[in-house]
């Protein structure tokens, strides 16, 4: 690749993990990059802010899991240490404590998924129910994140998948569905089986330590995004907030030459979209240029999930066994998590009382309630898990409603998701809902796709050095062997059976 000429202008739309990743990659190569953010500060849904009383809040707590190799590498590059040590977690139902997870990397390493199976401490779930998950291993081996695998599994629901493979009803309701509610943010009958397998494999089953997690020691906006944005601006990029994109200017050669934000136009030689599904649909609704393209019109078939983020300050110290906790069974179609911020956030370490974040996913039934209706519900749920909360009083609180906030991987949605390359020669896509073959999920995937989009810009111009993207850790040898055998059997089967026998 040659040195970048100074007149190449790139507009990046959206300042979350993907947009910031694309911007810093291109700015370091010498491109003139303008980053447009619709909100008041870069960071998208993870940009924290202060309440009127000066307390830090954010749109939910986000974990950073052991496989987030590229994000951890970014922290080293930025020279910051924003994370806690590895933490243990618990899972609760209305009946009480259900599961405790160890620090898996500290235990003797066993072939996957044996270590996860043996070391996870189930309090009530019988062994016979846990063993009913064994046939599901075939689906995990068969699903290799390829386009063909996604098409095989995406049209069925996660609930159907687990039922078809003989998972017991109790294991499904007490283990797998809670994972879906806090991992894919929807109940199993509303989740793609392909997405369910991919998410479970990446976060839990690929390698024994994958479920280990650290947390930001404050809001992600303050601890990570502020120093990152400062670094980006020093590299020469322009970061502009309160710029909502409304259309593109397209020439006769099928190239975008400008990005429109109401009455402003930003000239562009290439464009990177780095927004979520809801943000992209808003842009589409006002953009005749995008509405002319089937691929963008079809985004109307994609959806997103409502999230409710609450933060409660209590008048006394309460002993919470683990700093991070997932909960199920309190509402039929809603999962929730709660976090001990005295243990996780530096700001609250010496707080005289207890500060708890409680986040609800697929929370559509809560969003219409008033704050003074929501807080007692959260307080009651917390007291069900940790009885000490019953005597505590809420002295301050924050409620943040996030309608259509996180990607919904519904059955059949894969065919409408966009690849990184679009029908425009110089427009590229990034985000956690973009089709790619890296294998990561959530924040790590968003960041990786931002780097991938930047690399496509570099390839398009033929100028600059591409970003180095760390691959996910290779499958363990026995999984690799099983997948090779399975692929061979499939190929043989397709050669002797009609195509409809092997979808």
UniProtKB/TrEMBL annotation:
Annotated signal peptide:
none
Spans through the membrane: none
- Amine oxidase domain location: 18-458
Question: A single Pfam family, by name?
Answer: Amino_oxidase
Which molecular-function annotations from GO does this UniProt entry contain? oxidoreductase activity
Q: Which InterPro entries match?
A: Amino_oxidase (IPR002937), FAD/NAD-bd_sf (IPR036188), Zeta_carotene_desat/Oxidored (IPR050464)
Protein's name according to its UniProt entry: Amine oxidase
Q: Which organism is it from?
A: Brasilonema sennae CENA114
């Amino acid at each position: 690749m040659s040195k970048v000429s100074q007149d190449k202008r790139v507009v990046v739309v959206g300042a979350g993990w993907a947009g910031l990743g694309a911007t810093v990659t291109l700015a370091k190569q010498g491109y003139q990059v303008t980053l447009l953010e619709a909100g008041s500060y870069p960071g998208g849904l993870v940009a924290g802010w202060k309440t009127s009383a000066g307390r830090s809040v954010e749109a939910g707590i986000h974990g950073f899991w052991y496989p987030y190799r590229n994000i951890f590498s970014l922290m080293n590059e930025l020279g910051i240490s924003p994370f806690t040590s590895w933490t243990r977690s618990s899972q609760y139902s209305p009946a009480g404590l259900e599961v405790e997870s160890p620090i898996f990397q500290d235990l003797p390493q066993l072939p996957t998924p044996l270590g996860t199976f043996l070391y996870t401490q189930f309090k009530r779930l019988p062994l016979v129910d846990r063993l009913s998950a064994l046939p599901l291993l075939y689906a995990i081996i068969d699903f290799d994140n390829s386009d063909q695998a996604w098409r095989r599994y995406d049209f069925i629901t996660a609930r159907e998948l687990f039922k078809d493979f003989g998972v017991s009803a109790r294991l499904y309701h007490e283990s797998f569905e809670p994972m879906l509610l806090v991992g894919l943010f929807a109940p199993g009958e509303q989740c793609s089986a392909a997405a369910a397998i991919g998410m479970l494999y990446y976060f839990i089953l690929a390698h024994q330590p994958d479920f280990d997690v650290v947390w930001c020691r404050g809001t992600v906006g303050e601890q990570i995004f502020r120093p990152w944005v400062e670094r980006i601006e020093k590299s020469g990029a322009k970061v502009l907030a309160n710029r909502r994109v409304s259309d593109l200017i397209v020439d006769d050669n099928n190239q975008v030459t400008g990005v429109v934000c109401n009455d402003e136009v930003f000239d562009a030689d290439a464009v990177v979209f780095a927004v979520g599904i809801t943000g992209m649909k808003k842009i589409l609704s006002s953009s005749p240029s995008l509405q002319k393209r089937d691929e963008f019109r079809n985004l109307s078939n994609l959806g997103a999930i409502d999230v409710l983020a609450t933060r409660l300050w209590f008048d006394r110290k309460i002993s919470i066994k683990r700093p991070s906790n997932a909960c199920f069974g309190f509402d039929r179609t809603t999962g929730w998590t709660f976090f001990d911020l005295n243990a996780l956030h530096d700001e609250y370490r010496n707080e005289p009382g207890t500060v708890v974040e409680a986040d609800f996913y697929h929370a559509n039934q809560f969003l219409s309630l008033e704050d003074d209706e929501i807080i007692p519900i959260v307080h009651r749920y917390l007291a069900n898990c940790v009885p000490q909360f019953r005597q505590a009083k809420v002295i301050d609180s924050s409620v943040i409603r996030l309608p259509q906030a996180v990607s919904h991987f519904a059955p059949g949605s894969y065919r409408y998701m966009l690849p990184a390359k679009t029908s425009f020669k110089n427009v590229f896509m990034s985000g956690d809902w973009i089709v790619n073959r890296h294998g990561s999920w959530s924040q790590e995937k968003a960041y990786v796709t931002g780097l991938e989009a930047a690399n496509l810009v570099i390839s398009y111009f033929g100028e600059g050095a591409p970003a180095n993207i760390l691959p996910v850790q290779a499958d363990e040898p026995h999984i690799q062997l099983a997948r090779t055998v399975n692929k061979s059997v499939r190929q043989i089967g397709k050669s002797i059976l009609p195509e409809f026998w092997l979808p």
